[in-house]
Input
Amino acid sequence: MLDEEKEVLFEANPDALVADGLEEAYIGYGHQHGKPPVAIYDAEKCVEALMKQGMTYAEAQEWFDFNTAGAWVGEGTPIFMTPREL
Output
């Protein structure tokens, strides 16, 4: 995630949270009706980023599932999505 992208997200929602160390997996932001925007990350790119930090695929997947995608930290919690395959 570039500083400019972070600035745009925080302008839209100062309470939005970002995933440290997973900047390269950031794909944008979105929101549901009546709720403030939150960051959106590509789940597979998150796993790849964790692998670049020294984890095996299995370790990265487990860490991501439990500690990242499985963590609720309030209304600003990011969305971790799996893009459809075309």
Notes: Residues 3-80 form one domain.
